[in-house]
Amino acid sequence: MTSAVYEDFARAYLTEVAAAARRMFACGPEAVGLLRKATVAEGTRVRAFGNGGSSAIVRSILLQIHDHAGLPVNDAMMSPAAMAYGVQRQDYRTVFAHSLARDIDQVGLVVVASVSGRSANILEVVRLCGSHRVPVLAVVGGDGTQMEPVDGMVWATGTADQQISEDAMLTALTWATASALAPHEEPPAAGQERALHALAAIDVPLLAGFLREATEAVADAIRSRRRIYVLCPDGGPLALAGEHFAHNLSWDAPLGVEDVRPPLVVCDPSLADMSAIYNDHPDPAHGARHRLSSAQPQDVVFLLAYDSADRTSQEAVRAAAAAGTRLFLLHRDGPALPGPGQAFTLPQADDFTQAALVQSAAHLLCRTTRATLAAGPSPVDLMAQDLAPLRELSNAPHSL
User: Fold this and answer.
1) Reduced to 3 states, what is the DSSP secondary structure of residue 302?
2) Which pTM was predicted?
3) What is the tens place of the pLDDT at every residue in 178-194?
4) Which of 54, 215, 232, 234 could be bridged to 242 by S-S, CB 3.0 to 4.6 A?
5) CA-to-CA separations, 136 to 154, 188, 307, 388, in angstroms, rounded
6) What is the full DSSP assignment across 56-105?
7) Strand, coil or helix: what is 321?
8) 3-state class (DSSP) for residue 49
């Protein structure tokens, strides 16, 4: 595909994300009010739930609340081990509700995110909140009419497209949470403009060049069974965007493409790994170095960094370069790569807004990779294709 195809697609996609965010901002003050009421009330707790990419989105918001307000929050869902254990003993449809029921009388707000608005386990949470009169902020795709009424607010993206909806969700929720937690109330429009400015400030021609190189590298890695690494040694909201990034590459990039197996994606260390690292080596760079010690020449590495000049990021860059990998850096501050590799500098934004921008870049790469792997008659049509219906079809028995 030519550079012009990548540029046109990136511009069209980001324009749609901005349009969806604007639609959400129009009724955003109500969401800010719900969040503010929950975060200032003494002794209250906030809970949030989502599936797939929505899980990373709501956990980013909970991290924002916990970091700035110190409120008791859940991590959106249980740990993977606890979730798997619980699902063996009860229907997955009830796992979230069962977790919420334990302390629902102390919960002041439940945030749910679901592009379809029809996920059975999310609806169980909403019904439980209704029976206990707990306010719900339900962030959904489409026009919101598919979600049953809640005591609170149904906040719709205005588009059914899964990836565009997810990007608008994270952008709007990040803004609403920051507005609710601000020590001095500022006009909502000020924060909205900062978020939209960050989207508009993306250098689309440079992003297109980055996407072209990254797409070719990822498609080649998937075909050749090489590893793809997605690492964010500094943690925080950017690491949650990295989790979403890895999820997209692993599950969505090859979705429905014949004769293409899921890629070998390696992401940030697990909680078990990280707790051991910090106990034995009080150095976040150790996790990235350890991960990359298994890398082979021509493996692909995506390094997500707030500041690429900090020691942790530089350690990861050196480890990736020493292994001979194809290195791609997404960062906001600091130098580009000193040697071979591609770097893309994101617009200046706070840490949580940067995570939203990285999520959009990941979604773009997911779609361009799938279009390249499919090698269909119209890559442009494939890149514009909403993946949500395909994911639903992938659950059919005949595809197993």
Assistant:
1) strand
2) 0.93
3) 999 987 767 778 889 99
4) 232
5) 8, 21, 36, 24
6) HHHHHHHHHHHHHH---B--SS--HHHHHHHHTTS-GGGHHHHHHHTTGG
7) helix
8) strand
